[in-house]
What we know:
It contains 6 helices and 15 strands. It has 281 residues and is of the alpha+beta class. Helix 3 (122-132) crosses helix 6 (177-190) and helix 5 packs across helix 6 (177-190). The termini are close together.
Amino acid sequence: MSRLRIRHVTGFSYAGEAVASYNEARMLPAHVEAQFVLSSHLRIEPVAASHEYVDYWGTRVSSFEVLLPHRQLSLTATSLVEVRPQQHPAEHLDWSELGAVAGRSAEFVEHLEQTPLTAPPEDLVDAAREAAAGATTPCAAALAICENVGGAVAYLPGVTNVKTTAAESWQKRAGVCQDIAHITIGALRSMGIPARYVSGYLHPKPSAELRETVTGESHAWVEFFCGTWHGYDPTNLIPIGERHVIVGQGRDYRDVPPLRGVYAGSSNSKLFVTVEITREA
Length: 281
């Protein structure tokens, strides 16, 4: 078990004044299996009343509006989370059994359909088919696809943006965790394996001392279904473990952006983001 304290600061600075803004934040960790949220709080500046709810995908959402003129919108999410090892039972579903299970529940069907961000080009489908060729089960095939994509795509900030599609980043063979997750999801779905996008945090230093604060960042990885949901981080080529903290899950990035909204006033804005993670236990 690990206990992680996360401080995530994000928001917008405006060139002039924003006279009003309407926003949704998805920055607080989820209450899910193997993850226990001990405390979590979101501070909004300027001060604004917020409405908290859990969306269709199970993500905690803070909806709020700022109706006074402001030059900066700042959100600070502070959380303390216990993450426990998760053991997956051995899976024995074959391809026909997986197809039968995945086809009779909306939970799986919605994660089989491609989206504009995950739709794979033909050569990615071919690569997925080739990676899975030697696998005897859907679980083994899914893991092979994740490892194949993660090994083929370089982590390279600055070459993509939040609107970049899997096809575009696959063509470049480069991108950030969001792109690598989209490519992997597209490849998995093309093989009939339900897959979903996961947003959260990753402690970047496995050897961190207790009470050591390190610079982190928001992170993205995938979960695939082959009898149960399995998590894998294709960016780092590692299974999901005690350094990963889940915030939300969805079909792609558009279902779980940390901060989304609209504003009136100044025509220019600049996003700022900092994440600090401290290992408490």
